[in-house]
Amino acid sequence: MSTTTPLLDVSGLTKHFPIKGGFPIRRTVGAVQAVDGLDFQVGEGESLGLVGESGCGKSTTGRLVTRLLEPTAGRISYRGQDITHASRTQLAPVRSEIQMIFQDPYASLNPRQTVGKIISGPMEINGINPTGGREARVRELLEIVGLNPEHYNRFPHEFSGGQRQRIGVARALALEPKLIVADEPVSALDVSIQAQVVNLLQKVQRELGIAFLFIAHDLAIVRHFSQRVAVMYLGKIVEIADRDELYGNPRHPYTRALLSAVPEATVDDVPRERIRLVGDVPSPINPPTGCRFRTRCWKATEKCATEAPPLVQAEGNKPGHLTACHYPETHEATVPAGRLAKDPGAAA
Ligand SMILES: Nc1ncnc2c1ncn2[C@@H]1O[C@H](COP(=O)(O)OP(=O)(O)OP(=O)(O)O)[C@@H](O)[C@H]1O
Ligand code: SF4
Ligand SMILES: [Mg+2]
């Protein structure tokens, strides 16, 4: 990453959803610690992948960054400007520069609006009148995302899932954003068309220089898309690094386990056997003390139960490669046999 001000700079970002209980007076009885003290940056035109199991706080992070949710604590700075608690009016100029693409291309498009209306909507709301008019701009955008500009007057139901997601991309592009938060943009699509939509996003990133926070479940999808990758577990970033560094030299046991499930990643460096993660992700209402991963980690010690490991450049890590573990993994480290499942794709 460059040393200039990053496009997006997030520090200590926290979201706790209060849990209300009690009768007759409802009071806060606890909190879902959905996101707990995230630090990360996204450079201009860069793509940061955010990966982790269901419920680890990825969408909450995306919604905090786009300010659809109010943070409980921490700081979000966009182009050097603190937008953590900016009001609607203060946010207006920034809002158009930060756009979101959602997971479900069915639910995120208004079924009663034509494609033209959907894509020009953000321009209307923000009073943007492109030269040549909004309709011409919409047709141009349809072309950019690989749709027929003649389909301007069609409705969402007339398109396939992949095409609908392209409409979502066109809508996000309408305001010429600098940052797009893409929340699992392809996971609701057929596997056969996922790659096409990822390719489109890649084209958008490269040709238009738009930065991405690309949220995904697994490491396979972000591998081709993101120059840097952050791995989340139960509301925290447990590892963050340049792509090649993360895939080639995973230091956190959780990253290693996730990687072992990616077939194409099980080359020289990573063991061929799949590491089985035993048990479920604990509840974010009552996360484990110390290291949150310890209830599923094969290396957990007493220290892991009492001290939360900080996210730091572990010994042997390249600069920018940060790991939150008291006992970072090495290439030579073995995993107990009981935690290994034979990879069906591996040679016997
Ligand atoms: N509005 C809310 N009120 C209370 N809890 C919430 C709210 N939104 C999310 N949560 C909880 O916060 C945690 C993180 O949720 P989030 O949706 O961010 O996870 P995720 O990583 O996006 O998961 P998935 O991969 O399933 O999309 C979960 O335990 C979820 O139940
Ligand atoms: S800190 Fe301990 S429990 Fe957490 S990942 Fe590292 S070894 Fe496992
Ligand atoms: Mg989500």
UniProtKB/TrEMBL annotation:
GO terms for biological process: transmembrane transport. One of its GO terms (molecular function) is ATP binding. InterPro entries: AAA+_ATPase (IPR003593), ABC_transp_ATP-bind (IPR050319), ABC_transporter-like_ATP-bd (IPR003439), ABC_transporter-like_CS (IPR017871), Oligopep_ABC_C (IPR013563), P-loop_NTPase (IPR027417). NCBIfam families: oligo_HPY (TIGR01727), PRK11308.1 (NF008453). Keywords: ATP-binding, Nucleotide-binding, Transport. Residues 8-259 form the ABC transporter domain. It comes from the Bacteria. Coiled coil: none annotated. Belongs to the ABC transporter superfamily. The keyword Transmembrane helix does not apply. The keyword Transcription does not apply. This is Dipeptide ABC transporter ATP-binding protein. The lineage of its organism: Bacteria, Bacillati, Actinomycetota, Actinomycetes, Kitasatosporales. It comes from Streptomyces doudnae.
